[in-house]
Specification:
This protein is 60% helix and 0% strand. It is elongated, with a radius of gyration of 29 Å. It is an all-alpha fold.
Length: 80
């Protein structure tokens, strides 16, 4: 549709194939994928927590270096 009918490179190709779906195999693949994603999220969340800790450490270090007493009393968040 929509191209020159004489152009041999732009032919309408329709491919058909049959695939047998085995519910148990499909469910197993989905569960393996879920495990992989959960593992990756676990690693990512641990890294995020470490990055957060490092950002707070760096912030307080800079506050102390500059002698900004007004911010020196700040504490880490209570939700940690």
């Amino acid at each position: 549709g929509g191209w020159s009918k004489d152009n041999p490179y732009l032919q309408n190709h329709v491919y058909e194939y049959k695939e047998e779906i085995v519910p148990q195999k499909l469910a197993n693949k989905i569960m393996r994928l879920r495990e992989e994603i959960a593992s990756e999220w676990d690693e990512d969340l641990q890294l995020l927590s470490k990055e957060n800790d490092e950002m707070w450490r760096s912030f307080f270090e800079k506050v102390r270096e500059k002698g900004e007493d007004a911010q020196a009393h700040l504490q880490m968040p209570a939700f940690q």
